[in-house]
Design goal:
Protein name: UDP-Glycosyltransferase superfamily protein
GO biological process, one term: flavonol biosynthetic process
Radius of gyration: 23 Å
Organism: Hibiscus syriacus
Keywords: Glycosyltransferase, Transferase
Number of helices: 17
CATH architecture of the largest domain: 3-Layer(aba) Sandwich
Largest sheet: 7 strands, parallel
CATH topology of the largest domain: Rossmann fold
GO molecular function: UDP-glucosyltransferase activity
């Protein structure tokens, strides 16, 4: 089988009860930057023969659609109502609608599902092929690790952050807020970490994390994970994907377009929007600007989010596209016309740019963005620092200069980005480090299935004595 240019042997495990593939339960954290790469990884596990149940709440069920279409009946949703929480708006089940300060409340709310999940697991044990392990987002570790211990099955943590950031945080926990210290502390009791990264980029840090911090398991680097699809069914957009491609195809010069996007979590203030718009006008570069919809609850009473300056779109007509809502980001970055990417340097966006061989213009804002920028700009030399800070307003003239240079000059960072692209693609091909790590991860889950089978037999023997 071949998916996204990568060949798969189709080797699957057959050691679970009932003769099918080993069955695991996947528990994602409901933020696009977490759930999407975990679904991409689940896709790889399903390709290798595992059976998967994925726990979601109703408004996050849409993220499972590509897997359900491709892998039914080996993947099944397990849908629970989103528990209420006094600090969360009643209709919110996703982090993209909230500032990052609400993240602990999301985790606390989901923690109320521990008991219903425990009951579900117990019920499944009386049937064929029960789940033998929990594979959950590291931010949910405060309760998913406890759930696994109560059920006497292993838990492995999916880590959506880059390895350098996790190594920094684990080494200096005083830099973390109490909630994050609790989450990372609980994750140490898991059977290991799975990173969406690759050995040639962060192998040394992976080894240090495994040696210094992971108490009972190991570390796998399985990235950059190929996307299941272009996520087109998840959210709406103001411009159709075929219109975006047609516009890019009309650009005669390769690497002449700047893509601007700050992910699903970052929403620019009115002043930041004004500065970016002024830089684009002053630079005269061709561009695609992805503008996120305002959050349902803004930080610090900021009601002026994502405001495009009046008349801007008319003034740049023919030079650029402003797209509100979802954009086909992977397709845009891979297009020959796109040469640079002004980004917050979130890990998923950075990996997509690496796979596309695009020059990163880094504006780190929060979370792991600063460590990612340090890695790619300072250590690897495949990115250029532009600005930093969640509320910082860049100098429009200086930003305009950088935009022009990124599309007209063959900079050393662009050459390095192309080299890094080759390394990343080699890692996920058959025989590559990430491909092998995925096979080893499946073997690990298969081993849990064998151990579970032995435990079940012992319980049967005890009950008959």
């Amino acid at each position: 089988m071949e998916v996204n240019g990568v060949k798969y042997s189709g080797k699957g495990s057959t050691c679970a009860a009932g003769g099918g593939g080993v069955h695991i339960c996947v528990i994602p954290f409901p933020a696009c930057g977490h759930i999407l790469p975990l679904m991409d990884l689940t896709h790889q596990l399903l390709l290798r023969g595992l059976k998967v149940t994925i726990m979601v709440t109703p408004k996050n069920l849409c993220y499972l659609n590509p897997l359900l279409l491709l892998h039914s009946p080996n993947v099944q949703p397990l849908v629970f109502p989103f528990p209420s929480h006094p600090s969360l708006p009643r209709d919110v089940e996703q982090m993209q609608d909230l500032p990052i300060s609400f993240l602990p409340h999301i985790v606390e709310a989901l923690g109320k599902l521990q008991q219903p999940l425990h009951q579900w697991f117990r019920a499944k044990r009386s049937g064929k092929s029960p789940p033998v392990a929990i594979f959950s987002d590291i931010l949910l570790a405060p309760w998913t690790v406890n759930l696994a211990m109560d059920l006497d099955i292993p838990n492995i943590c999916f880590v959506p952050f880059n390895v350098a950031a996790v190594y920094f945080w684990l080494g200096k926990p005083s830099f973390l807020l109490p909630f994050y210290r609790e989450a990372f502390g609980a994750s140490m009791e898991s059977k290991g970490f799975v990173f969406n990264s690759f050995k040639d980029l962060e192998g040394q840090k992976m080894g240090l994390v495994e040696k210094k911090f992971v108490r009972h398991g190991r570390v796998w680097g399985v990235g950059p994970l190929p996307p299941v699809n272009e996520r087109g069914a998840i959210t709406s957009t103001s411009t159709r994907p075929n219109e975006v491609l047609a516009w890019l195809d009309s650009c005669e010069v390769d690497d002449s377009v700047v893509f601007i996007g700050f992910g699903t979590q970052i929403t620019l203030t009115k002043h930041q929007m004004k500065a970016v718009a002024a830089a684009l006008e002053e630079s005269g570069v061709r561009f695609i600007w992805s503008v996120k919809e305002p959050m349902k609850r803004a930080e610090d009473g900021d009601d002026d989010q994502s405001m495009i300056p009046q008349g801007f779109e008319d003034r740049v007509k023919g030079k650029g596209l402003v797209i509100k809502g979802w954009v086909p980001q992977v397709t845009i970055l891979k297009h020959r016309a796109v040469g640079s990417y002004l980004t917050h340097c979130g890990w998923n966006s950075a990996l997509e740019a690496i796979v596309a061989g695009v020059l990163l213009l880094a504006w780190p804002m929060q979370a792991d963005h600063f460590q990612i920028t340090s890695l790619l700009a300072d250590e690897v030399g495949a990115a250029i620092r532009v600005c930093k800070g969640l509320r910082t307003v860049p100098d429009a003239t200086e930003l305009a200069r950088i935009l022009v240079k990124s599309t007209t000059v063959k900079q050393t960072q662009r050459v390095r980005a192309m080299e890094l692209q080759k390394t990343a693609l080699a890692a996920i091909k058959e025989g590559g480090s990430s491909y092998q790590a995925l096979d080893e991860l499946v073997e690990q889950f298969s081993g849990f299935g064998i151990d579970c089978g032995k435990t079940d037999k012992m319980n049967i023997l005890r009950s008959s004595m």
